[in-house]
Amino acid sequence: MIEVKELGRDLGSRKDRKRILDGLSFSAPPGVVTGFLGPNGAGKTTTMRVLSTLLRPTEGTATIQGHDVVADPDGVRASIGLVTEEPGLLNRLTPRELLRFHARCHGLDDAASAHRLGVLAEAMGCLDLLDTRSGKLSKGSRAKVALLRALLHDPPVLLLDEPTANLDVVATDAIHELLRRPEVIDRKTVLLSTHSVDEADRLCDRVVGIVAGKAVVEGSKADVIASVGASDFRSAFVTLLGNATLAASAGGAGEAP
Amino acid sequence: MRAPAQALLVARLRLLDATRDRRAFVTGLIMPFVLLSVFGGLGLLGAKEQRRDAATTVKVAVADPGPGAERLLEALNRDHIKILLDGRPTALVARERADAALSVPRDVDQALAAGRPVRFEILAGAGGRAAEAIATTDAALRLAVLEAGGRPVEVTVSRDTLTGNPKAAASAIARTVPLLALIITLPFFGAGVRALASTRVDRSIEHLLPLPVARTTLLLGLALGTIGGEATQQILLLAVLGVAAPALAASGAIPWSGPPALLLALILSAVAAGSVGILVGAAARSERIVGLVTSLTSALLFGGATVLQFVDDAPRGALATAIPLVGPVLGARAAFSPRGLPPLSLVTMAAGALVTAALALRLAAQRLAAGGGLRV
Q: pLDDT tens, B270-326?
């Protein structure tokens, strides 16, 4: 479970301070994939960084599985698996070496991590990638390794920050297919940050829309469609987000970087 | 898992990554020797230039001081020869800062008074002008003996002494050791900068920070791994030093306390340089300015250390050795001098390096906690 209340975060130098998150509130329940949608610069990545304890919030609270990101960062870190746009793999190491390191950091012994890695890699069809140096892997394969890394210690919460942003259609499709598998998602709380409405429509059960650091939409896809009387999720969401963006511009809301 | 084990885990990962970078590894192996040749060559040129105008320095060991020996010294002193009186054996004075050593025999007074020939011995010094110094000393000596009322003298200049004096040769090598310490230290500064900066470049920092590992532990692991990787690249140079230093000690050219003091000075140099590097890497707002800041810091800190390397009267007190980067270089130099490295200097040098390391880790961890290590 993820709960975010009145979250605020400023970024930039003292002279050039920008309000990135401005009273953001939403929740993501377990067992479903929650889409976190917004235009570029809306504050999605900053939110994900606050939730993964990379950044401290300026104000407000955020809890993951009951652990506060400021008061109990270790509890949060033990509860999350993180996938970002850039996998951040060390090119001269093999995925197996990297994944063993991450498993050890999470307290898994080698036998347990090897077993789980085998099961997950087989399910994801990437057993053959494990002993190739990361620098030689394609972008799609690197994204799969990043997903493996996030799932290896079986965290109750998955934070996926634009995991398909730099991937081609085939690789994106492969990642989407993985994220729809019950054995991958299990009963986890999944927060998927994306700027693609189609991706959210394909993968998510509910959505949170963010514009200029504030949540402007929250609910199931059916709720979103019903709220504007649109024929499909895409047009409903685009209408809602468009209206919110116009309102934010007119109101002089903090401009995203 | 406890913090030390976590730090070692992070260090192992980084070390594995660093040692697989073949291009950097080969460059790291060769570069110290290139730098040594360049700096050593420049140093020799400078020293040659400096010597051109200076008087020849001759150490004189007088076995039997008396009026005859005094007259002889007075006569020698007029001929552009700077006399440094020393009662110790000539073999010992040869490795100190003198161009040549002249041994005045025990019976010089009686011999000069009786008009008997006297047998002098000239020994080569450690500098690069031994032949010139011996020729000057020889001529000045013959003239001085004549002026002192003696008959033509026999001057022994043994070829063995000139070319095969192990102490003279060894001391020339020993003088390059502090330069080696400087060359070894320089890459550790870069490694310190890279410890954090490289994780920003490859974006691995975004996946290391969400691990259940304390920030300081993570930084310590990154620093140990990157600096350890640098140490493996220095293995060839360290091996040369590892063989040369005990050999120098065995030859009597340097004190036996020299090699362990040098090893300690090198370790502390690496710690101090790496720590300052970590501070620079953590403070830089983006990797674009890391290079600029690194170059400027290197120029300032190592420029100072290089100057001290070649200055004869550099400060060698305990406080001077506490200064990171400068102190360990002075320490390496002192460790190879006949006076050795005083224990107090070792303590202050260690304190300087360790305080810098603790400060660097703390400040860098604070910056990481505030999100300073991330691209925004």
A: 888 888 888 888 777 666 677 777 777 777 766 766 666 555 554 556 677 777 777
Question: Which residue on chain B is closest to A89 by alpha carbon?
Answer: B204
Q: Where are the alpha helices (DSSP H) in A57-168?
A: 73-79, 95-105, 110-123, 139-151
Predicted complex ipTM: 0.86
Say how many Å lie between the first and final Cα of chain A, rounded.
29
Whole-prediction pTM: 0.73
Considering only the beta carbons, identify the residue of B16, B207, B370 that sits closest to A97.
B16
Over the stretch B195-213, which tens digit does the pLDDT of each residue have?
Answer: 888 888 888 888 999 999 9
CA atoms within 13 A on the CB side of B309: 28
B213 and A105 within 8 Å at the Cβ level: the answer is yes
Which of B210, B369, B376 is facing A77, going by the closest CB pair? B210
Nearest C-alpha neighbor of B137 from the set B83, B212, B184, B97? B83
Q: How far apart are CA A80 and CA A64, in angstroms?
A: 8
Q: How many CA atoms lie within 13 A of A254 on its CB side?
A: 24
In DSSP notation, A167-190 reads --HHHHHHHHHHHT-HHHHTT-EE
Of A54, A87, A93, the CB nearest to B16: A93
Residues of chain A contacting residue B212, judged by C-beta atoms under 8 Å apart: 74, 77-78, 105-107
**Which residues of chain B does A82 touch, with a Cβ-Cβ cutoff of 8 Å?**
206-207, 210
The one-letter code for the residue type at A245 is T
CA atoms within 13 A on the CB side of A32: 16
Q: Is B201 on the interface with A (CB under 8 A)?
A: no
